[in-house]
Specification:
This protein has 104 residues and is mostly helical. Helix content is 66%, strand content 0%.
Length: 104
């Protein structure tokens, strides 16, 4: 499969957003309400979206799930991954993809 430039740009911009938010957290470390809001946005929203985007990108490239997340203990947001695959890959997410490489 080929690389998707749109997902690559999305991954890079999410990484940049996380770095920007982290810097802003430092600026507001003495204002707990703003600091905490920024922190929660970075840790929950941005991180979750970055994970779903990375999984969709690797799926479209043909990389097995086990190679992407071999040590993960929590399930990703599969509905978001599926929406990203449909939007950027114009295909359906194979439900068996997450099981490839997990059988030992």
């Amino acid at each position: 499969m080929k690389r998707n430039p749109f997902l690559r740009v999305k991954l890079k911009s999410l990484a940049a957003e996380a770095r920007i938010i982290r810097k802003e957290e430092l600026r507001f470390r003495f204002n707990p309400s703003i600091h905490d809001s920024l922190y929660l946005h970075r840790v929950k929203d941005v991180r979750r979206e970055a994970r779903a985007t990375l999984l969709a990108y690797q799926y479209l490239r043909g990389i097995p799930y086990k190679a992407v997340e071999s040590l993960s203990h929590t399930a990703p947001d599969w509905s978001r991954v599926e929406r990203l695959v449909k939007k950027y890959g114009h295909t359906e997410l194979d439900p068996e993809w997450s099981k490839i490489g997990t059988e030992l």
